[in-house]
Amino acid sequence: MKNSKNPQKNRKKIAVILFFTTALLFVVFISRFSYIMVKGQINGENLSKKVNELYTRSSVLKAKRGTIYDIGGKPVALDATSYSLVAVLTDKWSKDKEHPNHVVDKEKTAEVLSQNINMSKEEILERLNTPNVDQVEFGNAGKNLSYEIKSNIDKNKLTGLVFDETTTRFYPNGTFASHLVGLAQVDKNTETGEIKNDILDGIMGTEQAYNNILKGTDGKIEYKKDSFGYSLPNSKPKEVKPKDGKDVYLTLDNRMQVFMESTLTEVNEKYAPKNMTAILMNPKTGAIMAASQRPSFNAETLEDLSFWQNLLVEDTFEPGSTMKVLTLAAALNEGKFNPNATFMSGVKKVEGGEIRDHNKVGWGQISYLEGLERSSNVAFVNLMEQMGEGTWKNYMDAFGIGKSTNSGLPNESTGSNPYEWPLEKANTAFGQGVTVTAFQMMQAYSAIANNGKMMKPYFVDKTVDPKTGKQTITKPTVVGEPITPETAQKELDYLQNVVYSENGTGQAYQIDGYKIAAKTGTAEIVNPDTKKYYTGDNNYIFSVVGMAPADDPELVLYVTMKQPQKYDGTVTGGRMVADVFNPIMKRALQYQDLSNQPDDSDSNKVEMSKVTGITKEEALKTLEDKKLNVTIIGNGDTIVQQLPLPESTILAGQKVVLLTNGAMTMPNMTGWSKNDVLKVSEITGQKFKIDGDGFVTTQSLPENANMEGVPEINVTLAPPR
């Protein structure tokens, strides 16, 4: 009670407490401040770094993705910037009447746009008059526009038009070894289509396999700015320059690839197989000259992109009688093939079952050479037994059966080589019960066509640094020598009997003027549900491997066709496959002849200049003194392909076709020769149906119309009057 009556004494106590509390807080503050000053961090975070982040701005300097070329230097896949057109219809985003941000003059806007995109004025006006919407797009006609088209529209100073810029990958050939070349795309939301980032990444084929080489490394630039966005005094930007991706040159020959695509499309429509493959290879090196499959897709428009599997390396199948090429090679190498010795064809019993010839009853007592010609299963099981089951297994291993070729393509399969039970072993001698990939078979066949040396298949010729010009060239690789040169030569002689003897199963593969060594195949297919082989005349994989010229092959062509759906029994499987094999092999042999012949003509010769990679104006200026007939296809601003090829010798007045990076537009072909029309087909990948002979009189697609998405263009030729 006494203390409570002494307020002065209480105030002194409170003052002392406050003094010491303040002193303590001051000490804590000074200690904390000193700690921060010395350590430069708070709560484990670096303050200098935080300040630097607060005032540092940075921008990414994007690296250019490398270009993919064919063997002749024609671009197959290249970077491009495209634009998508949007028209703003609402005035709520306009600041004032003097500076409108929406479409004001719809009539003029429709008129200008109709001259630059593939839509009529009436269609555009209908879009521009859409009620109760803020903005409209123009479908596919308003997407993937080139810079030149954008510039042409911008020149008219129309209000309310917005161009969204997108980094894209341009595939000027359309359907062109699409699963082998592959795709590179930006990362998009699959549901909304919204772009997550605009970095191109390979998602298939060469684009994926060589993604790290193609994509390069992005750079960046850093600079200091205050909170108002002004540059800080005495601050200099720090720049790390981007490193562009390297260019990749494929081994594909553009002429053969385009011709192969055209042939496969035609045969696919004719017979509608479940799938089909074709590979053309140089057996001396292993270089893939052309390769494709059906189903395929247009890499530029993504039309028909529903089947992602690369059948050349990912699909495994039982090869059937084309496997007998390897069985024969092994028997020859072991000295077990006597062409004049005989055996009883038809049926052979083995432990666990029996082997039958394809006609079920055989041909009686025949020679082993006739057994080869007729593709007798019994003959090849006998040969396997004569050389020994273990020996045959060793040869299959030596030929790479059941092993990856290590092509570098994504998801390559190894196949399988089960070899335990007697019946299982016997089946492998004629290509059943063992699974392979098309690349594996090509690798094995190269040993027969290349004097016993087995070459690894490869599809990239070289990579090139575009800045330094430094090249990394792919060297042909010998991956084994399973047979001797003498064996290889003997087999080539015997395989000609398959094509030219009266009993040969390969008579359909004769090509006038050339000798072909070939082996046919008709492989049964396992039903995945029942685990038994399908029945029915069309439930097979029909195939052929052919080597030419037969005495010293420069080409190996392997074709497979699985379960043709348009099959009425009147055409054999061999005849259907010949519709693919014969035209492709004949065209390839003709090109080989042309490349081996000297050009004796010296009248009016000019050398074709390289004009790809430059503007249209520069290209025309480069060619104006050469007296050439130049046609430019497309409304882009840069030349991306040319025919004839650079440095080729041509005649003055010859037709030159140049393709730009814009939409492919139809030229006026009136008066053109058939060869000139085919140049357009080759350079664009567009299918043309040509009727008649002489020179062009009519064309189904009008001049300047967009060729993209047109299934077929009809052209009529007639002799000159």
Describe this structure in words.
It is found in: Cell membrane. Belongs to the transpeptidase family. Residues 602-662 form the PASTA domain. The chain crosses the membrane at residues 14-38. By secondary structure, the protein is an alpha+beta fold. It folds into 4 domains: 7-59; 64-215, Alpha-Beta Plaits; 254-596, Beta-lactamase; 605-718, Trypsin Inhibitor V, Chain A (2-Layer Sandwich). The chain has 19 helices and 33 strands. Strand 8 and strand 9 form a beta hairpin.
Discrete helix count: 19
Radius of gyration from the CA trace? Answer: 35 Å
- State the separation between the terminal residues, measured CA to CA: 137 Å
CATH architecture classification name of the largest domain: 3-Layer(aba) Sandwich
Mean pLDDT reading: 88
Describe the largest sheet.
Answer: 7 strands, mixed
Would you state the CATH class of the largest domain? Alpha Beta
Tally of individual domains:
4
Shape: globular
CATH H-tier superfamily of the largest domain: DD-peptidase/beta-lactamase superfamily
Q: Kindly name the structural category.
A: alpha+beta
Give the helix proportion (percent range): 25-40%
The count of DSSP E runs of length 2 or more, i.e. the number of strands, is 33
Low-confidence stretches: none
Percentage of residues in DSSP E strands: 15-25%
Assign the CATH topology of the largest domain: Beta-lactamase
